[in-house]
Write a structure and sequence with these properties.
Blueprint: H1 6-19, E1 33-35, E2 38-39, H2 40-61, H3 68-97, H4 101-116, H5 125-131, H6 134-154, H7 156-175
Antiparallel strand pairs: 1-2
Helix pairs in contact: 1-6, 2-3, 3-6, 3-7, 4-5, 4-6
The chain binds zinc ion (ZN).
Residues 23, 25-26, 28, 31, 38-39, 41-42 line the site of zinc ion (ZN).
Length: 176
């Protein structure tokens, strides 16, 4: 029987995620693909946005004024979808080659800031590079991504709102 090293096992775990069929937007390995290559939450967000956009264009073509809520809903959904896709790109990068000790340090700092509001692991990259092999670092980053992803999805609408708020402020600044 062939014996795998721990490093190989870690690599195999990550490779098994890469091979899995995953949602085209969020890329989350724990979600089942539902329709049109998307998981259910992503598909539903996309469908809601389509409905909101159709309503907007109907109102426009009939020369009606656009209620704030309708435009706002479309903007929030668009931001939420962008946020989701961006996180998916991050996971793909982690899975493909995300074994940099510096990136792992960044992920651990994100986690510690989130839990105890402190950068507990700042400056640890060299040590992480010594202690863990590339396969382990990729494996660990894939696990941390999962925490980041669940956290992001829980706060997605709030994040979309603050992103919209920031954009509105900076366009006001630009117009001055
Ligand atoms: Zn998805």
């Amino acid at each position: 029987m062939m014996r795998y090293s721990r490093e190989q096992q870690a690599t195999e775990f990550v490779d098994s995620i890469i091979k899995r069929e995953r949602c085209l937007w969020c890329r989350d390995p724990s979600r089942v693909v539902y329709r049109k290559g998307l998981c259910r939450p992503c598909y539903e967000k996309g469908a809601q946005l389509k409905r909101a956009q159709k309503l907007l264009s109907d109102l426009k073509s009939r020369g009606k004024s656009i209620p704030f809520e309708v435009k706002h809903q479309a903007d929030v959904l668009r931001e939420a979808i962008t946020d989701c896709k961006e996180l998916g790109i991050v996971l793909d990068r982690v899975l493909q080659g995300g074994d940099s000790p510096l990136d792992l340090e960044w992920d651990l700092c994100w986690l510690s800031r989130r839990i105890c509001r402190k950068d507990l692991f700042k400056g640890m990259a060299t040590q992480l590079g010594w202690v863990l092999g590339p396969g382990h670092r990729r494996f660990l980053r894939a696990l941390i991504w999962r925490i980041i992803s669940v956290d992001a999805s829980r706060h997605r609408i709030g994040r979309a709102l603050s992103q919209l708020h920031r954009k509105a402020l900076s366009s006001k600044e630009g117009a001055r």
